[in-house]
TrEMBL record:
PANTHER family in the record: CATION EFFLUX SYSTEM PROTEIN CUSC, OUTER MEMBRANE CATION EFFLUX PROTEIN
Keyword Lipoprotein: yes
Family from the record: Belongs to the outer membrane factor (OMF) (TC 1.B.17) family.
Protein name, UniProt field: RND efflux system outer membrane lipoprotein
Keywords of the record: Lipoprotein
InterPro entries: MdtP/NodT-like, OMP_efflux
GO-annotated molecular function: efflux transmembrane transporter activity
Tree of life domain: Bacteria
Biological source species: Novosphingobium nitrogenifigens DSM 19370
Keyword Transport: no
Length: 479
C-alpha cells in the first residue's frame, strides 16, 4: 500500500479531445404564440382534449395491453436492476460458508493412513471419520478515487435514459391510437357522403335516360352522367378498405389480433384541439422523451469515462474473515479450533500494453458521440415543432377555404332548387348542384382529417401534449 501511491504517479491518463458546447435553443418558436394558456391540461392525458369518451377508453385499454409498452417497461425494470447491482459495489460483500462431511474407508486407501484406518474398530464398519467447518468472511473495496461511484452514476443515468425511452414509446403508441381513431371516423363520414353522392348520381342517370327517351336529350349526355357515377363508385372500395385498415391497426395496438377490428363510429364526437399557446423551446425540450434520453446518455458516458480514468489509479481492498471447524479421523484424536483473518491489499497497474489508455480514448469518443447525438436530437426536436406547427396552420387554412367553398355550393344548391320549383331550372340542374355540394362536403372532411393528423404530429413534437384547450369552427351543415 505504501508503494501503490508513488507508483500511481508514474501512470498518466491519455490526452482527450475537447468537447464542443451544446446547442443553444432559441427563446421562442416561430409558429407558436408565446402568450400564456388560459387553461392547464395534464400532459399525460392530452387525448381527453378531443372530447370523445370512446377514444379515452380505447387509449386506456391500449396502454394496459400494448406489447411495445410492455417491452419498454421490462427494459426499465432491467435497467433499474443493473443500477442496483452497480450501487452494491460500494458496500462490503459478506458471505457465509459451511460444510459437514464424513469419509468411508473400504480398503482402497494406500499407505500408513490406510493401514491405520483399517486397524481401527470403526474401520471395520467402514466409517473412517468426519468434520465440519463454518466460515464468515467480508470483502470491501473502499472507493478512494470515486471509480465505483462513477459506475453507479453511469448505471443510474442509463436507467433514467431507458425510462425516458419507455415514455417515448408510450407517446408514440397513444399518438398512433388517436390518429387512427380520428382517421377512421373521418373516413366513415366520407363514406356516408359518398353513398349519398351515388344515390344522387343514380337519380340523375334515370332522369337523363327519361329525357333521352322523350327526345329531349341524347346518348352522349347519358354516357357522361354514367361515367361520372362510375368515377364516384370507384372511390368506395378504397374508402372501405382504408377504414378496415385503421380499425385493424387499433385492434393490434390494443393487443388483439387484426381479425377483431375496433369499430369507430362516424359521429364519434371528436373535438379538434386548438393550436397550443405558451409553449417555449426550453419547456418542450425538457419534456420530450428523446431529448431527455440523450441527456441521460451523455451523463452515463461522462460517468463511464470518469470510471475508466480511475482504473489507472490504485485499488485498495479490505479482507476480513473468520472460521470455526473440527476434523475427526477414526482412531485419531480430533482437531478443531477457530481462525481469523484481516488483510489490506493494494494494487496499481504498471503495464497493460495500452489497454487502459485505449479504453479511456474509446470512452472519450463515446462521450463525444453522445454529445453530438444530443445536439442532433435537440435540433430535430425544434424542427419537428416548427414543421408540425406549419402543417397544422396549413391544414387550418385549407379547411377554412374548403368550408367557404362548401357554403357557396350549398347556396347554389338552394338557389337551383328554388329555380327548379319556379320552372326555370331542370331536375338535372338540381341533381348536378347536389353532387357538387356533396363533393364540397367531402373536401371539408378530407381537410378535417388532415387537421387531425397534423394535430397528432404536433402533439408528438411537443412531447406529450400542451397547455390550453379550444376547438376549431365546426363544419358547415351537410347538404
Amino acid at each position: 500500500m505504501v508503494l501503490a501511491l508513488p507508483l500511481a504517479a508514474c501512470v498518466h491518463a491519455p490526452a482527450t479531445e475537447p468537447h464542443r458546447a451544446p446547442v443553444t435553443p432559441p427563446a421562442a418558436f416561430a409558429g407558436i404564440d408565446g402568450a400564456a394558456p388560459e387553461q392547464a391540461v395534464p400532459f399525460d392525458h392530452w387525448w381527453t382534449l378531443w372530447g370523445d369518451p370512446a377514444l379515452d377508453a380505447q387509449v386506456e385499454r391500449t396502454l394496459a395491453a400494448n406489447q411495445d409498452i410492455r417491452i419498454a417497461m421490462a427494459r426499465v425494470r432491467a435497467a433499474r436492476a443493473m443500477a442496483a447491482v452497480a450501487e452494491s459495489a460500494l458496500y462490503p460483500t459478506i458471505a457465509a460458508n459451511g460444510a459437514v462431511w464424513g469419509t468411508v474407508a473400504n480398503g482402497t486407501i494406500d499407505g500408513s493412513l490406510g493401514q491405520l484406518l483399517a486397524a481401527s474398530p470403526e474401520g471395520a464398519s467402514g466409517t473412517a471419520g468426519g468434520g465440519h467447518v463454518v466460515a464468515l468472511g467480508a470483502a470491501w473495496e473502499p472507493d478512494v478515487f470515486g471509480g465505483r461511484h462513477a459506475d453507479r452514476d453511469a448505471a443510474r443515468a442509463a436507467a433514467l435514459g431507458t425510462q425516458d425511452m419507455a415514455a417515448g414509446v408510450r407517446l408514440m403508441v397513444v399518438a398512433d391510437v388517436v390518429e387512427n381513431w380520428q382517421q377512421a371516423a373521418g373516413l366513415a363520414r366520407r363514406l356516408i357522403l359518398l353513398d349519398r353522392s351515388l344515390s344522387a348520381a343514380d337519380t340523375l342517370i334515370m332522369y337523363a335516360r327519361a329525357r333521352m327517351a322523350a327526345g329531349q336529350s341524347d346518348a352522349a349526355t347519358v354516357a357522361k352522367v354514367e361515367a361520372a357515377r362510375a368515377g364516384i363508385a370507384a372511390q368506395r372500395g378504397p374508402l372501405v378498405e382504408l377504414i378496415a385498415i385503421r380499425q385493424r391497426r387499433l385492434a393490434v395496438l390494443a393487443g388483439d389480433p387484426p381479425e377483431k377490428p375496433v369499430a369507430v363510429p362516424a359521429e364519434s364526437g371528436l373535438t379538434l384541439p386548438a393550436v397550443p399557446t405558451g409553449e417555449l423551446p426550453s419547456t418542450v425540450l425538457a419534456r420530450r422523451p428523446d431529448v431527455r434520453a440523450t441527456a441521460a446518455a451523455v451523463a452515463a458516458r461522462a460517468a463511464r469515462l470518469k470510471s475508466l480514468k480511475r482504473d489507472l489509479l490504485p485499488r485498495f481492498n479490505v479482507l476480513i474473515g473468520g472460521a470455526d471447524g473440527h476434523v475427526t479421523l477414526a482412531g485419531i484424536p480430533g482437531y478443531g479450533g477457530q481462525a481469523g483473518l484481516i488483510g489490506l491489499q493494494a494494487s496499481v497497474p504498471l503495464f497493460t500494453a495500452g489497454r487502459l489508455h485505449a479504453r479511456i480514448v474509446g470512452g472519450d469518443a463515446d462521450l463525444d458521440a453522445a454529445l453530438a447525438m444530443q445536439d442532433r436530437t435537440v435540433l430535430a426536436a425544434l424542427e419537428d415543432v416548427e414543421a408540425a406547427t406549419s402543417l397544422r396552420h396549413g391544414a387550418d387554412q385549407s379547411r377554412a377555404q374548403r368550408e367557404r367553398a362548401g357554403v357557396e355550393s350549398n347556396r347554389r344548391l338552394v338557389a337551383t332548387d328554388a329555380l327548379f320549383r319556379a320552372g326555370r331550372k331542370t331536375l338535372g340542374d338540381v341533381l348536378e348542384a347536389r353532387l357538387d355540394a356533396l363533393s364540397a362536403a367531402d373536401a371539408v372532411e378530407q381537410a378535417q382529417i388532415a387537421q387531425g393528423s397534423a394535430t397528432v404530429q404536433l402533439y408528438r413534437a411537443l412531447g406529450g401534449g400542451w397547455d390550453g384547450a379550444g376547438t376549431v369552427s365546426p363544419a358547415p351543415a351537410k347538404p
